[in-house]
Amino acid sequence: MSTESPENVLFVVMDTVRKDRLTPYGYDRPTTPNLDAFADEATVFEHAVAPAPWTLPVHASLFTGMYPSQHGADQENPYLEGATTLAQTLSNAGYDTACYSSNAWITPYTHLTDGFDEQDNFFEVMPGDFLSGPLARAWKTMNDNEALRAIADKLVSLGNTAHEYFAGGEGADSKTPAVIDRTQAFIADSDRSFAFINLMDAHLPYHPPEEFAAEFAPGVDSTTVCQNSKEYNAGARDIDESEWADIRNLYDAEIAHIDAQLGRLFDWLKAEGQWDDTMVVVCADHGELHGEHDLYGHEFCLYDPLVNVPLLVKHPALDADRRDDQVELVDLYHTVLDALDVDGGTPAAGGDAAVALDRTRSLLSDAYREFEGVPDADRDPGQRGDGAYAFVEYSRPVVELKQLEEKAASAGISIPEESRFYSRMRAARRTDAKYVRIDRIDDEAYRLDADPDETDNVAGAGDPEIEAVSETLADFESAVGGAWTDALDDDVSDDTVEEMDEDAQERLRQLGYLE
After folding, report:
1. How many CA atoms within 13 Å lie on the side-chain side of 347?
2. Which Gene3D superfamilies does the UniProt record give (predicted)?
């Protein structure tokens, strides 16, 4: 790590933003002029891989330095428990910490905000004091009961449902300006700070502010295009190429709004004299599909538009340049610890797992990805091979699957049980090849160097590079407890709520889940 390391970290997650829709990555529309200018001062990573294709497990990995199967936060167990977070470690080291977001998963009841001195989720219908009070207790009770877990899962989806309702049509109301305002106020009042923000605009549904819609989606009525990915994925709604173009244009407009607000934050940091003393990380937690592979959204697959995400980092130890080597978002946990000279590894509570700084995982270290020198007993599951591999895990998405079933049923469509929709998946990726192990359908493998769009499945074709990736994936699976070979029960329907106490039932009635 450089001795010039800044005292502060600004960590920005652009939720659901594809790499190929950003100007620094060669997009031919000027969606992100501020990120383009930022790229002149930052390292731009061409191959940054997310540990999962959706928000909850990715953020849990960012905050713990663990892969999803290690920290266990997923829709089948939708909260983070028994792990010391990055915010807890930094707060204990004397840093002021804050998390501002409008994403339903990044809240006290999932425990992703544990350790932050300040946090705000900007929900109209689920304010922070409620999330940390009766609902948090009901949430824990329900998740500890197997029969009630589906109801608990739906509570998490409520936030995104509320986002869809309140962000819809003429009532569109992005929370990003408020997130930026709060971030500025927090930094202004801090001596040494770690500010984490999640900007939600590019997540479905797309109802961009008029200024950006007029530039990038002129004439498009956002209330008439398909804004429900489950309708399309279930086969209940067709989308022609003209409508796809409108959807992509709305998406571009949302990204342009994010960029404008980031530009406002960056300009403020410069005006306040904070820019040079702030490490800035900008990434996406995952991307989005707009019809590729006949899918819409970010569920049911591990294709590159979802998991090969944008990543730009400004720090004195990194050159203002582009890098073609592969990195993982899991590495950012160690990079932040390294930048702030914090060792980590001390549990915040008895029995917690706590990951210590490993400089073979830090982007700032000369030893980055030199995994071969790490003793076997000290290796984490991803420290396989020569450091050229990244690993992705995807457990069955209970909430989305339930919604998919409902859309299919309403259209008289039956979803095959042996399909990707019910499947769990794991992938190993190199810059030239990827192998995806799937528990209900045939595995997938692609030569990314020759087939970047992943159209030719070469699993089982005898390609030696593919075989090497498959073998390394098997090593990873062994390290995290074995391959997923036992198909889960197909039933994802809701169960009774008779075991819930009266307070929890009343809360569900107020939220519209019970009559």
Report:
1. 8
2. Alkaline Phosphatase, subunit A
Nearest 10 degrees: CA dihedral of 485, 486, 492, 494? -140
- In this structure, the number of other CB atoms found within 10 A of the CB of residue 320 comes to 12
| C-alpha to C-alpha distance for 113 and 118, rounded to whole angstroms | 9
Q: State CA 84 to chain mean position distance.
A: 19
CATH of domain 8-386: 3.40.720.10
CB 286 within 8 A of CB 55: yes
What is the H or E stretch that residue 73 is in? none
What is the gyration radius of the CA atoms in the chain, in angstroms?
Answer: 22
Let me know the angle formed at the C-alpha of 270 by 117 and 35, rounded to the nearest 5 degrees.
90
115, β-bridge pairs? none
- Torsion angle (degrees, nearest 10) of CA 382, 388, 389, 390: 80
Instruction: Say if CB 281 and CB 10 are below 8 A apart.
Output: yes
CB 43 within 8 A of CB 319: yes
pTM of the model: 0.89
Given the structure tokens 């692609």, which residue do they identify? 446
Give the Cα separation of 170 and 164 in Å (integer).
12
SS3 assignment, position 43: strand
Which residues are paired to 119 by β-bridges? 99
Q: What is the mean pLDDT of each run of 10 residues along the chain (515 residues)?
A: 78 98 98 98 98 96 97 85 97 97 84 94 51 48 52 49 46 79 97 97 95 98 95 96 98 98 98 97 98 96 98 97 97 98 95 96 96 89 94 86 89 92 95 96 97 98 97 96 78 44 43 36
Q: Are 83 and 64 in contact (CB under 8 A)?
A: yes
299 within 8 A of 400, measured Cβ to Cβ:
yes
Give the per-residue pLDDT at 92.
97
Q: How far is residue 508 from each of residues 160, 404, 497, 502, 504, measured CA to CA in Å? A: 16, 22, 10, 10, 6
Where are the domains positioned within the chain? 8-386
Q: How many CB atoms sit inside 10 A of residue 377's CB?
A: 5
Could you identify the residue written with the tokens 């928000």?
55
* 153 vs 56: CA distance, rounded Å: 12
- Tell me: cis bond preceding 205? Omega within 30 of 0 counts: yes
